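Problem statement: downstream parser choked on a complex file, so we are re-checking the raw output for the zinc ion run. The parser issue turned out to be on our end (a line-ending mismatch), but while we're here, posting the original submission so the record is complete.
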Amino acid sequence: MLDLVLRNARIAGRGDAILDIGIAGEKIVEIAQAISSDAPLEDAGGRLVMPGFVETHIHLDKSCILDRCESRDGTLQEAIAQVAAAKRGFTEDDVYARGRRTLEKAIVQGTTRMRTHVEVDPRIGLTSFAAVRRLKRDYAWAIDLEICVFPQEGLLNDPGTEELLVAACEAGADLIGGCPYTDSDPHGQIARIFAIARRFDLDIDFHLDFDLDASRMDLEEVCRQTLAFRYGGRVAVGHVTKLSALPPTQLAAMARRLADAGVAVTVLPATDLFLMGRAHDHNVPRGVTPAHRLAEHGVTCSLATNNVLNPFTPFGDCSLVRIANLYANIAQAGTPRELAACFDLVTAQPARLMNLPDYGIAVGNPADLVVLDASEPAMAIAEVAQPLIGFKRGRRSFSRAAPLLFPPTTGP
Ligand SMILES: [Zn+2]
């Protein structure tokens, strides 16, 4: 017995076949041509149906604070300082309200799985963490939210932070992150984060190597500890803009190192473009690491949103198809194969990064289904295709009306 049939779907990876998807309860139970059923129907009209976008890196807690900040030089250091000052005014309800606005935007952009980073330190305590936990619970009907607690302003130089991170892990944080480049002892921080992760058996997601000086990288230390603790497949690093400054042979060598260690990479094109290269007043470097090239070497990679409407990134509609299009444009990835790879970087690859075994349109998986106004993945990226309908675990979670034209009637 089916509860719903999504008719006339084009499914990524299944060629040009037009298929029906049968849903019972929260799951996909049948994928076939012309399913016969009395269940309610939804018609995808031959459009691309996919399991929703996967956001691996966003900051709900510090989104939507542009009106509280004043940015002048647009550097990373200024953004951290501005947000640190604004953070002193955060309350739980304030974080909840701003996070909700950002989360709802992501949902209507077709995102069904998300990892959010949440700052923990002695100034904010566990206030933002508590607010984001409420969001996770209150929006579980539309999105699976994973919480990564991390110290934005340092760990070894910021007494009391480690105790708070441990308290958050005891209270149910899903994973732990780090930010070695703001620490007085970057390698010391990496070691402490690995120690906490192993104590609580959590995956790790670092902010890492966020400038354009490739002569010194913390990435090597992260790979070394990942191998030493047999943590391959459980460690991700975000930004790593230093890799964008490497010539191809060195980039390929580092890609092989990452693939061998099992360290995944998240590239954050909007923030990286906005903050990098500020020392240049012309011929400004893009500062965006070529994720699709790393992926060609077997590195698990994702493209993600990072910041929304704050000094790190004063933009943001939470659309991952837009981020993938932005990335494709600046990475000069324009062939059908490259554009399809960019689609993978906001769908299947980030699902692998987050270790989500039940992601994908397959019998037995949750009925997370998003209809995109596109015929196939490469064109979805090329055209910034809009999501029209979404289902989360078999229940409709949003819809967006397709645009309509109203030409004048002709003749008498
Ligand atoms: Zn971030």
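For whoever reads this later: The first helix runs from residue 76 to 87.
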